[in-house]
UniProtKB/TrEMBL annotation:
PROSITE patterns: ADH_SHORT
Originating gene: actIII_1
Protein name, as recorded: Putative ketoacyl reductase
Family the entry assigns: Belongs to the short-chain dehydrogenases/reductases (SDR) family.
This enzyme's EC code(s): 1.3.1.-
Keyword Repressor tagged: no
Keywords: Oxidoreductase
Entries under CDD domains matching the protein: SDR_c (cd05233)
A matching Pfam family: adh_short_C2
GO MF terms, alphabetically ordered: oxidoreductase activity
Originating species: Flavimaricola marinus
Gene3D superfamilies in alphabetical order: NAD(P)-binding Rossmann-like Domain (3.40.50.720)
InterPro entries per UniProt: NAD(P)-bd_dom_sf, Sc_DH/Rdtase_CS, SDR_fam
Length: 274
């Protein structure tokens, strides 16, 4: 039986979600790609969300490369009804769901703690923590119904284990995501569903480039100084690639990882080691 994977936040070119989707398709999965589908002001800017055109282009590229079935769905993860519709789409289109990758995240509403905007805080916590909880809770019954267990992979961050100035809400949301990962693993293990997190360090995607620019200015450094300092902290001497995270996800979805659950795997070139 072909496994079906739902990956959220997967439309942006050269992003983590796109790389994860391509890797799982190469491993033989059929894919349901999700992204928000449209920009909407500062809470959903062009450098932060994937639009419908990107989503369809990514789906077409993966279909052509792998021959797998790839479908798309849009929805705002701040909307509980939209989340229900996303999971329902997996059932309607494929009749099953085996893998859920909670990849979508708000990693662009940064700023000083003393200037926290409540609307920004709600958006970060809503997409990064509330949405994975709701998606997992609604996806699990489909996995249980299938009778073959399942995999839930939460894309956390190095910020799930270490603090970062000017990213308090983001860091808090990712720390919370690890707590959810561990609790969900306890609840769903009896059904053969593993729940794990992957914790990448910085990856210079399109969003990552925006983060580099923001953080270097916030620290009073040139972009070159900021990037040199980042690389100097990484034992393997380079920042992460989308494929590094995709490889970790593929492993956690494989049979070799069937006895691994409740874990938070660092993919950081040695920068994050606890």
């Amino acid at each position: 039986m072909t496994r079906v994977a739902l990956i959220t936040g997967a439309a942006r070119p050269k992003g983590l979600g796109q790389a994860i989707a391509a890797r799982l398709a190469a491993e033989g999965c059929d894919i349901l790609l999700h992204d928000r589908g449209a920009v909407d002001g500062e809470l959903a800017p062009a450098h932060g969300v994937g639009v419908a055109q990107d989503l369809e282009a990514t789906a077409r590229e993966i279909r052509d490369a792998t021959g797998r079935r790839v479908e798309t769905v849009t929805g705002d993860l701040l909307d509980a009804e939209a989340i229900s519709a996303i999971v329902a789409a997996a059932d309607e289109l494929f009749g099953r769901l085996d893998i859920l990758v909670n990849n979508a995240g708000v990693g662009y509403l940064f700023g000083p703690l003393t200037e926290t905007d409540p609307a920004h805080l709600d958006a970060v916590l809503g997409v990064n923590l509330r949405a994975p909880m709701l998606l997992t809770g609604q996806a699990a019954p489909l996995m249980i119904r299938g009778g073959e267990g399942g995999r839930v992979i939460n894309i956390a961050s190095q910020a799930a284990k270490s603090g970062f100035a000017f990213a308090s809400a983001y860091t808090a949301s990712k720390h919370g995501l690890l707590g959810f990962t561990r609790s969900a693993a306890l609840e769903l293990g009896a059904h053969g569903i593993t729940v794990n997190a992957v914790c990448p360090n910085h990856v210079t995607t399109g969003l990552g480039a925006w983060q580099n620019d923001f953080m270097s200015k916030a620290r009073g450094e040139t972009l070159e100084q900021y990037m040199d300092g980042m690389r100097a902290r990484i034992p393997l001497g380079r920042t992460g690639l989308p494929e590094d995270t995709a490889n970790a996800v593929a492993f956690l979805c494989s049979d070799q990882a069937s006895y691994i659950t409740g874990e938070a795997m660092n993919v950081s070139g040695g920068e994050e080691y606890h």
